[in-house]
Amino acid sequence: MDEHLQWLWNQVEPHAEAFRCFIEHAKWADVNIGCLSESAFPILSASATSLRLLRELDLGLSFNFTLV
Questions:
Q1: Which residues pair with residue 60 across a beta bridge?
Q2: Pick from 45, 21, 35: which is nearest to 12 by CA?
Q3: Could you tell me which residues come within 8 angstroms of residue 65 by beta carbon, excluding any fewer than 6 positions away?
Q4: Between the ranges 1-5, 19-23, 36-40, where is the mean pLDDT highest?
Q5: pTM
Q6: Residue 4: in which H helix or E strand, if any?
């Protein structure tokens, strides 16, 4: 998960001000993480460092787990 969130921040960071403007005018905004899992109770973890995207853009985090 850390690698994915870091990759996403690397793409967003150069355009962070534009994202902040979009978010400011949106009704809501968050980062959605989807997971396909064979476990009925999957566990995702992310380090505090990789959550920089959420802190910098003041975003929430939502999860979508699908049991396969």
A1: 30
A2: 21
A3: 34, 35, 37, 42
A4: 19-23
A5: 0.76
A6: helix 2-12
